[in-house]
Amino acid sequence: MAIINRIGDLGPKMAEWRQHLHTIPELSFDCPKTSAFIKARLEEIGVDAIHDGIAQTGIVAIIKGQGNGPTIGLRADFDALPITEETGVPYASTHPGQMHACGHDGHTAMLLGAAQYLAETRNFSGSVALIFQPAEEAGGGGEVMVQAGIMDQFDIGEVYAIHNAPGKDFGKFHTTAGPIMAAADTFHIHVTGKGGHAARPYDSVDPVVAACGIVTALQTIVSRNHNTAGSLVISTTQIHTGTTDNVIPETAYINGTVRTFDKEVQAMVVARMKEIVAGTAAAYGCEAELEFEFGYPPTVNDAGKAAFAVQVASEVAGTEGVDDAITPVMGAEDFSYMLEARPGAYLMLGQGDGAGVHHPKYDFNDEIAPIGASFFARLVETAQPVS
């Protein structure tokens, strides 16, 4: 590992920052303690400007390098999840029912470590925009910050982010050109029949049977309407209907998620779902309504910026420490909005064995923070060298 010496020295400080953030997890956009902590650290570090209150609690801080030049954006998310922690660590959550179960506390500490090094050395031209973002888990804080105009306001030309990866080899970077994470959409289906006595089903129109038919038919979209060379997931995750054994209910509710990488595939799914829902319900004598909610778009790495990020990551972790052609994953990430606004790349950084993200026993591995911070720093110095 070619960790920058100064950033290696900052390792204990980054761990201290991270573990403090771990004690005060906050949800969605409502992250005042987290935002205040980040702002206080940025003031101590000595960045040139701090712009807070973006997307309620988001922050963009600017560090100026030597002379004129472009601005590169580095993003860290900082919201937590509504999970009761089960780690037993001394720095466990002090907010009941809330937990940093996805490592956003670690992402923030990595970016703060890079910020301290960049503010001390300023061995780059132009500027760096440090983007600290709330509401990645729910609410789409990335979209809100883009809509607030941060890319234009701070003249950001390209943007990068890292996410920790438990279960992956310690210190190894993982990325790919093109799609790396999926779009995440949600569907709601409301089926209406005619309720009645379960002993006289012929006097009713049973929405339970119709709902089961709809769920089964939806699976044919993946197996019969989609080219198997691409990636598509349709998962029904909830069916709610009825109250007791001797009553045929009036209604049924179906809920689930759709994951895609391509807008044409997404449009095909919506069209087929409408046809299947209406047609299957009619076949059983029922009526049904589909509500399709478009969520985070796919996270798509710019090919050139991904190749550049791989080059920098290889300088930090060695060529064997970078996988530059991973299979895209079906999870979603609202950094996608920033990559729609500007070219850039999203990488994952292995943190070794341990509980997976969104698990009550998950904990960020503080030993990867100097690796991630070194990547951020080298990225800036390589992209914007001093002339």
Describe, in plain words, how this protein is organized in 3D.
- With 387 residues, the protein is an alpha/beta fold.
- It is 35% helix and 25% strand.
- It has helices spanning 5-9, 11-23, 32-45, 104-121, 141-147, 150-153, 207-224, 263-283, 303-317, 335-341, 369-383; strands spanning 49-54, 58-64, 71-77, 127-133, 156-165, 173-174, 178-181, 183-192, 196-197, 232-241, 247-248, 251-260, 287-293, 299-301, 322-323, 344-350.
- The strands form four sheets. An eight-stranded mixed beta sheet has the order 1-2-4-3-5-16-6-15, with helices on both faces. Strands 10-12-8-13 form a four-stranded antiparallel beta sheet, with helices on one face.
- The radius of gyration is 24 Å and the shape is elongated.
- The mean pLDDT is 97.
